[in-house]
């Protein structure tokens, strides 16, 4: 097993000016499950392929353990990769697919068979070893791809969106299997996904990327409780955080008649570029519905109610004086506020409700830079 270190690693594709991955500094501990997450085009797959040796590193270095592998061939890096499309040989049996890399490496047949059978037992594939990939379901094929990586006994597992081709129910089941398998094997794992729910449920730590730049690294709880900037705040969490622009006045964030108290040190961190405004973030589950208007509440007109059995979410529009000036955004889009409500007491479509932010559960960001304040 080994640590992985990106040391100011950059990848610039020919014909482009902006790096696909820009000065990435990231250290992954031995045995850690780290998830690289972000929107399409953010550089997460490129970062993984740089570690695999499938993409050149134009600047900086990559280390596996104490070994600089920046210019080492992929086959000599002691890594195993699981791809999105499985990449199985259709004419080979499951056992031959899983043991092919060992066969190429000249491993004795008896040892290959032993390792394949051990991996198959772990992955519940024993009864399928003689089948061809076409006779397997999507989830079984993905487990075969996992088995092929496991038998290699590498220092590092690399997984590039391995669940994208599975249906929703199977995706949930398989991500649980992958996470528990990784903890059982204890192999350092770098996992790429665009699905922040996968990131939150699987990773020991999460690294969020945007436009090739690392935005924040931390545990799932740290990312949820203390997002470093507006982008991370809006990306991590389901449904996404509500974000709105409020004017700062006398220690309060104000929009229309509503006032939200701010921490004492926030006002002192504002710069001239902030124009005496902050971006306030509040999660749907941090809002309480109140029976009447007050100075800390703001009105929301209900557009849609999404009932999920154990949960219910209101999607509505912020209304009242100067509501449009708040420029509210959420997972539902522009000018939409998401509120988690009691599933046994949901408001009707078109109804006006009043919501307040629970004390201590708002997030304050610089209006100009988007960085966290306080």
In short:
The protein is of the alpha+beta class and 374 residues long. It has nine helices and 22 strands. It has a six-stranded mixed beta sheet with strand order 6-7-8-3-9-10, with helices on both faces. A five-stranded antiparallel beta sheet has the order 13-12-11-14-22. The chain has a five-stranded antiparallel beta sheet with strand order 15-21-16-17-20, with no helix packed on it.
Key features of this structure:
9 helices, about 375 residues, single chain, six-stranded mixed beta sheet, alpha+beta, five-stranded antiparallel beta sheet
Q: In words, what does this structure look like?
A:
With 374 residues, the chain is an alpha+beta fold. It has helices at residues 44-52, 94-104, 109-122, 138-151, 168-185, 196-202, 220-225, 230-235, 264-269, and strands at residues 4-11, 21-28, 33-37, 59-64, 67-68, 79-82, 156-160, 188-193, 205-210, 213-218, 242-249, 252-255, 258-261, 277-282, 287-290, 297-307, 312-318, 329-330, 333-334, 337-341, 352-357, 362-366. The strands form five sheets. The protein has a six-stranded mixed sheet with strand order 6-7-8-3-9-10, sandwiched between helices. Strands 13-12-11-14-22 form a five-stranded antiparallel sheet. Strands 15-21-16-17-20 form a five-stranded antiparallel sheet, with no helix packed on it. Helix 2 crosses helix 3 (109-122). The longest helix has 18 residues, at 168-185. The two termini are 39 Å apart. The model has no long low-confidence stretch (mean pLDDT 92).
């Amino acid at each position: 097993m080994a640590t992985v270190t990106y040391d100011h690693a950059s990848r610039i594709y020919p014909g482009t000016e902006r790096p696909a991955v820009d000065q990435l500094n990231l250290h992954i501990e031995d045995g850690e499950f780290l998830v690289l997450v972000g929107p399409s085009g953010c550089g997460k797959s490129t970062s993984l392929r740089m570690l695999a040796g499938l993409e050149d590193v134009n600047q900086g270095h990559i280390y596996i353990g104490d070994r600089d592998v920046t210019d080492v061939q992929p086959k000599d890096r002691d890594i195993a990769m699981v791809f999105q499309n499985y990449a199985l040989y259709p004419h080979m049996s499951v056992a031959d697919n899983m043991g092919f890399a060992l066969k190429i490496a000249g491993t004795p047949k008896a040892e290959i068979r032993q390792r394949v059978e051990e991996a198959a037992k772990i992955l519940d594939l024993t009864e399928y070893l003689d089948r061809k990939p076409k006779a397997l379901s999507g989830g079984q094929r993905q487990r075969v791809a996992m088995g092929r990586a496991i038998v290699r006994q590498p220092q590092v597992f690399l997984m590039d969106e391995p669940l994208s081709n599975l249906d929703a129910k199977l995706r949930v089941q398989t991500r649980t299997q992958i996470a528990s398998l990784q903890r059982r094997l204890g192999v350092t794992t770098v996992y790429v996904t665009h699905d922040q729910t996968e990131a939150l449920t699987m990773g020991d730590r999460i690294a969020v990327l945007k436009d090739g730049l690392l935005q924040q690294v931390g545990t799932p709880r740290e990312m949820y409780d203390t997002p470093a900037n507006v982008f991370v705040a809006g990306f991590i969490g389901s449904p996404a955080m509500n974000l709105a622009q409020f004017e700062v006045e006398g220690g309060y964030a104000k929009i229309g008649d509503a006032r939200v108290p701010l921490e004492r040190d926030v006002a002192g961190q504002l710069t001239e570029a902030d124009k005496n405004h902050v971006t306030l973030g509040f999660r749907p589950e941090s809002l309480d519905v109140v029976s009447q208007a007050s100075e800390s509440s703001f009105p929301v007109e209900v557009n849609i109610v999404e009932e999920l059995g154990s949960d219910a979410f209101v999607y509505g529009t912020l209304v009242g004086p100067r509501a449009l000036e708040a420029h509210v955004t959420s997972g539902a889009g522009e000018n939409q506020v998401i509120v988690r409500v009691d599933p046994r007491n949901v408001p009707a479509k078109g109804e006006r409700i009043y919501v307040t932010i629970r004390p201590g559960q708002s997030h304050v960001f610089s209006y100009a830079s988007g960085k966290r304040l306080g």
